[in-house]
Batch of 4 targets.
Target 1
Amino acid sequence: KSTAMDVTVEDLEVQRVDKFEIVGRAFASVSGEPVHLVTLKRLLGNTYDRVDFFVAANDYAMLEVRFYRTGELNPYKVTRMDRAQMEHYEDRVLPKRIDFEDLDAGTETTIVYRRREVNPELSSAPFSVRSLETRSHLSWIRGWENGAAE
């Protein structure tokens, strides 16, 4: 529908519980599936004031998120994760597809994960001090460290 993207980095980032206050808990349903409805208020100002999380009661998959501006009764943005588009892992359920709807703008954006690795084995070699020091594009860090040490 739109050439503008309705997704922000904030929509995809991992949220920290210490940045919110729980202001409501209830039971509801999403497409007939029982869910825990948890309403959180942001403690720090941002693009939204509060958010409703609709979490599946049986496996804690995130099925829907609604974002609200201060004082508004209706959400301005809704994020949906369809149960049929979920990938199951040993300790979690993650969506392969996320649909974002900006109700104010009347636009929709869809993100599809074509490849995902959960808990991959990562070598620590790329993050060693020696490895980082040899990267020329990080030379400003060495200069700053040398200047800071003087």
Note: Residues 63 and 82 are 6 Å apart (CA to CA).
Target 2
Amino acid sequence: MLGLGSKISKTRRTTPGIVTDNLALRHDYKSPKPIHQVSTGAASFVRSGVDSISLGFGTALTPKTTGFTTCFWAKTNDLSSSQMVLACDNGTNQRMYIGNHAGDWDFGWGDTAWASGSADVTTEWTHIALIHTTSTDTTQMYINGIKDSTRTDTGSGTFNDGTFGGDFVIGKHGTGGSTYAWDGYICNLGIWTRTLSQAEVKSIMWKNYIELTSDEKSSMVSWYNLDEETNTSGAAGTGGVKDYHGSNHGTLA
């Protein structure tokens, strides 16, 4: 069953290779120690339960004209199954998805199939950013702040022209039922209708929403800490998750 805020917590400690700076954890890339997510908690997804969060706002985005970025922290418990962290699909080949496919961090965009990355998925916390540049029809994936793969596609502008009917879903394929359901943890997921720079990605990956600058929030659509359960309006309660930036509060499924 999907749990929020109860499975993962961050303690104030100094690990070899990791330096704490208030709420942020800075990674020393020379250290063999793994990177740690920055969060007070995380949403826990169970693949067998097809846990997911429906965000329900696909028609609010127009990356065909503005560009698009999403980023998040994720940690899987299952390396053997293909799984999606975030997906949006209207069922007619207009889509965006990102997750573990055949053991790699891969993504799909527009009317394209999976685009293979070069980084293997591990059971460690990993920060992912997917950035689409409209002018070149190019999509790039960054893993832990470093560019991993690039794909240029013709026709991918079909996602999204403002008439897209699909909704964003965290934790599974948008229209695929149990297909590609996530098993593990996700936190600090943000969505922008603009192209973020690598410098911004590297800065944002170490922050909760409250720590983001006004420039980093520019053209942001939504941000989900995924560290607590609320009701579907974002207020205290159950059954939903809060959008800390906008009003696209999620519904647990």
Note: The longest strand covers residues 68-76.
Target 3
Amino acid sequence: LVSVAAAALLVSLKLGVGVLTGSLGLISSGIESSGDVIAATLTFFAVRLGGRPADPEHPYGHRRAENLGALGEAAILLAGGVLVAVDAIAHLARGAKAPDIHWYQFAVIAVALIVDLSRTMISVRSARRYGSAALRSNAFHFAGDMAGSLTVLVGLLLVHAGFMQGDSIAALLVAAIIGAAAARLVVENANI
């Protein structure tokens, strides 16, 4: 539940500042974080369902609910990645204007990195403790979010240095990070 609240905070910060400044990198990161809200909610219910003991209808228990939750998370990630990639390619193709650079963009990225680092560490610890596939996939997802935030940071620094397409390229790289995370989740959980 704390993860859902943290993801909602990051969505509002990233999308708000992204729209305010015209940063496609922050907007794409905000879109990806909105998938986090859905994914964290899905994980919450999958972990609760997966922890139920066996019953007459499920003689082997409900453990695979977590893997199905992780596959649902992968589908959400993939959809967000495609949306971000299409928008980034459109920006690059038409030579869209670079975003305005302000200090608060960097503050939002710093907050996102701190929140995602703490969520990653907590999810890894919990996944090991409970042997949870859903929590392990959440940890991987949050680590991907950190990589995305670092990519957006580099893109904004490039724009600040005069490379006007840095933000759009960063958004495209965020889409690739999202796609890689989704592919890993699909492979890992579909095999199970």
Note: Helices lie at 2-21, 24-50, 64-94, 103-130, 133-160, 166-191.
Target 4
Amino acid sequence: MCESLYDFAKNLDVDLILFDNVWHREDSITTEFVHFNKEDYKQDFNNLIFDYKLIKDKIFSGYFGVIWTKFYKSAFIKEKNIHFPSHKLYNDIEFHIKSIILAKNISYCPRIFYHYNKSDHESLQTSYRGKKEAMVFYDVAVGIRDFLSEQNLMEELKIDFLDFTFENFILKLTEMSKDFKQDYFLKIKSFFESMGIYPNDFDKY
């Protein structure tokens, strides 16, 4: 895997490479997540170089917005000062979004290199589900909001970003313990108000 991706990256001199993955579930069901459907994209991926505009649908995707389907050029990460925030949870979301948007040269290696064993056992994320710690997604959303504004991309990506944040806020608010639900609701409300979005505006989006 590493040798193939390294050679691929050196040949095209890119900032990062996307590659495919497959999820293995305990019920023996497997699901492949392929970045590009080859029937829809008649491309020579051995020589294709692009930026985030080609993959806007993957920037805020829960299935493709993960760091373990990417191969990063370390010099690019250092130059752009991309790092993981100190959040206990969801600290890879900002890293993914920033790296995808800031990368000028992205390529795609159409091979499955990562096998993800999806179990029902408790993970760090599920252990905090419904607890106060899960409210940290608010900080994640604020970090991404500020980044998009700094890059002058909010207008271009606003609908996708709102859809992403609203879906995740609703899910986490639904799971949240009643002890913290009201506080979290008020944080969510303040987040959308900071973007100039109020209850009556949701019909527009």
Note: The mean pLDDT is 88.
